[in-house]
Write a structure and sequence with these properties.
The protein has seven helices and 15 strands. It is of the alpha/beta class and 240 residues long. It has a single domain (2-238), classed as Ribonuclease Z/Hydroxyacylglutathione hydrolase-like (Metallo-beta-lactamase, Chain A), CATH 3.60.15. Bound molecules: zinc ion. Zinc ion binds at residues 64, 66, 69, 112, 143, 162, 186.
Length: 240
């Protein structure tokens, strides 16, 4: 496990060389907010990382309910029974293993590793604009129907989950990068993901941190490029 700090945010990376999976400890005045819960074996390392910082994890905010973002959730909830678990209402259904679509959603199947045996249920359902610790939830659907990004309002750092990837080159969710195609394969609806990417770009983040790959500082130009690539790819696909 690799640990790198950016201001208030500590990125924890599992399998940094092969298949990097990130989760984040966000440092608050008195405690920590964990964003995402990595892989099943990650729980102990996450708690040890918090101990190294010297604060305890009081909140677990999930960007979305895919296996590699909620893997250690049950174990963490056992180790940290006081921690409040939060996710969007939409992805809470996915967390419970329910892959049915809501009326009005694009009729494409939800993809990726949807958890089959997670027992933890959220303590709090987060809606767009709500706050958890120093983070503001920003709805960014597309990769999953209920994906939330989290903006640290102190620094402008954006924890975007899989709305973007940076491994294998920056990409909007749904756009396949040859060197790391997995997030694209796991994406529900690329057009929706592109609309969300535009919305996240308007936040003008100071740092873009994602589920897979290294964070980008001053990411505006890279995000612009990723959006242009996604626009071009979707236009080609629709034959316009
Ligand atoms: Zn995902």
């Amino acid at each position: 496990m690799k640990m790198i700090r950016y201001d208030h945010i500590v990125q924890l990376t599992f399998f940094p060389r092969l298949f990097p999976v990130n989760c984040f400890l966000v440092e608050e005045q008195d405690d920590l907010t964990l964003v995402d819960a990595a892989l099943p074996f990650s729980a102990k390392a996450i708690v040890q990382a918090a101990e190294r910082i010297g604060k305890s994890i009081r909140r677990i905010a999930l960007t979305h309910a895919h296996d590699d973002h909620v893997g250690a959730l049950d174990r963490l909830k056992q180790m940290l029974p006081e921690a409040e678990v939060a996710i969007s209402a939409r992805d809470a259904r996915l967390l419970a293993g329910d892959v049915t679509l809501d009326p009005g959603e694009p009729p494409t199947p939800i993809r990726g590793g949807v958890p089959k045996a997670v027992r933890t249920r959220p303590d709090r359902l987060l809606a767009d604009g709500e706050r958890i610790g120093s983070l503001r939830a920003v709805a960014a659907p597309g990769h999953t129907p209920g994906l939330l990004a989290f903006l640290d309002e102190r620094s402008g750092a954006l924890l975007a989950g899989d709305a973007f990837q940076t491994r294998g080159g920056i990409a909007v969710s749904g756009q396949r990068k040859v060197l790391f195609p997995f997030p694209a394969w796991a994406t529900w609806h690329a057009e929706t993901a592109l609309a969300s990417a535009r919305r996240l770009q308007e936040l003008r983040p100071s740092l873009l941190a994602v589920g897979h790959g290294m964070p980008l500082q001053r990411p505006a130009a890279a995000i612009d490029r990723a959006i242009r690539e996604a626009e071009a790819a979707l236009e080609r696909r629709s034959g316009r």
